[in-house]
Amino acid sequence: MKRISLAVSLLFAALPLLADTYNVDKNHSEATFKIRHLMSKVSGKFDDFSGSVTTDGKDAAASSVQFTIKTASIDTANESRDKDLKSGNFFDVEKYPEITFKSTAIKPTSKKNVYDVTGDLTMHGVTKKVTLPVEFLGFGKDPWGGERAGFSLSTTLNRKEYGINWNKALDNGGYLLGDDVDISVNIEAVKAK
User: Fold this and answer.
1) What are the phi and psi torsion angles at 171 (to 5°)?
2) C-alpha dihedral (176, 153, 96, 89), degrees to nearest 10
3) Where are the beta strands (DSSP E) in the chain?
4) C-alpha–C-alpha distance, residues 42 and 33, integer Å
């Protein structure tokens, strides 16, 4: 009985060694967004982000994800607009320097290579449980002897649910900005050595 107990203990102790961690390669990844402005959609991106995916290639449910965006790195190719977005009107980057996501569950969907990744998304001091549709793009070796993995997701978030409420009423009705923000994250990650 002691031998069985010892064997089980050793097996559980070894489980973390079976998992692989892939760190986000920022130079080959992106975190972008679009929001309605009057009659069109304006796009932007965040330049500073990091994250990792710890994966068991045989069991997606045993995997986990964490991702962090530095809000001060927002870039819409317009300096005055970026300054406003960093202010208390929007992201208030001094008070809320990061947007974070940490997974709590991963489940396969009916679509091939698409997973529902559920976790806690914290933005502007508000944490909400969200489920994101993440497409797994596969594993592969790079020309430098490393191993890589790819992931992609697109979703829509309501900015007001996170306390980002600023807007301006228009004289002819409606508002300057939409509430919904289209989010796109494309990740190439490198296996940690």
Assistant:
1) -60, -35
2) 0
3) 20-24, 30-37, 40-46, 49-55, 64-70, 74-75, 98-108, 114-123, 126-141, 147-158, 177-191
4) 8
- Between CA 108 and CA 115, with CA 109 as vertex, the angle to 5 degrees is 55
Bridge partners, 150 (sequence order):
138, 188
Q: Are 49 and 33 in contact (CB under 8 A)?
A: no
Decide: 181 and 156 in contact? Cβ < 8 Å: yes
The Cα–Cα gap between 162 and 100 comes to 13
The predicted pLDDT at position 18 comes to 59
**How does the average pLDDT of the chain come out, rounded?**
91
CA distance 79 to 60: 41
Among the listed residues 108, 122, 109, the one whose alpha carbon sits nearest the alpha carbon of residue 157: 122
Residue 6: per-residue pLDDT: 42
pLDDT in tens, 99-150: 999 999 999 999 999 999 999 999 999 999 999 999 999 999 999 999 999 9
Closest CA to 69 of 10, 26, 36: 26
> Structure tokens of 33?
């967004």
pTM for this predicted structure:
0.88
Tokens of 110: 């009916």
